[in-house]
Amino acid sequence: MLTIKDLEEIEKIVDEKLDAKIKHLPTKDEFYEKMDEVMGELKAVRESQEIHANQHAEINDEISKIKKAINRTV
Predict the structure, then answer these.
(1) Cβ of 14: how many Cβ atoms within 10 Å?
(2) Largest separation between any pair of C-alpha atoms in the chain
(3) Domain span at residue 40?
(4) Model confidence at 73, in pLDDT bands (50, 70, 90)?
(5) Taking 80 as the threshold, does the pLDDT of residue 74 lie above it?
(6) What b/e readout covers 38-68, taking b as 16+ CB neighbours within 10 angstroms?
(7) Is the dihedral of CA 38, 44, 47, 48 positive or negative?
(8) In this predicted structure, what is the pLDDT of residue 49?
(9) What is the pLDDT of residues 3-24, one digit of tens each?
(10) Cβ–Cβ < 8 Å for 26, 34
(11) Residues 49, 56: Cα–Cα separation, whole Å
(12) DSSP one-letter code for 25
């Protein structure tokens, strides 16, 4: 049967092994800080993409107008 000392020793070993396995992981604050940064970048990219798509739509509209004007004169 395990004694209290045995259980404490097991707990110590488990804690050491667990600490060794998770030492490379960020803290909760570090994680949320990085996620805020990533989400800010994602928002900027999406906004830029939306602007770019609108510019393409405007260009396509202008091309259509020019084609119609050319077809009328031909």
Answers:
(1) 10
(2) 101
(3) 4-73
(4) confident
(5) no
(6) eeeeeeeeeeeeeeeeeeeeeeeeeeeeeee
(7) negative
(8) 97
(9) 999 999 999 999 999 999 999 9
(10) yes
(11) 11
(12) S
Instruction: Enter the tokens of residue 73.
Output: 């004169």
CA-CA distance, 14 to 22, in Å (whole number)? Answer: 12
* For range 35-48, the mean pLDDT: 98
Query: Which H or E element spans position 35?
Result: helix 28-73
The tally of domains found in the chain comes to: 1
CA 64 to chain centre: 38
Q: What is the mean pLDDT of residues 62-73?
A: 94
The residue type found at 55 is Q
Report which residue type is found at 52.
H
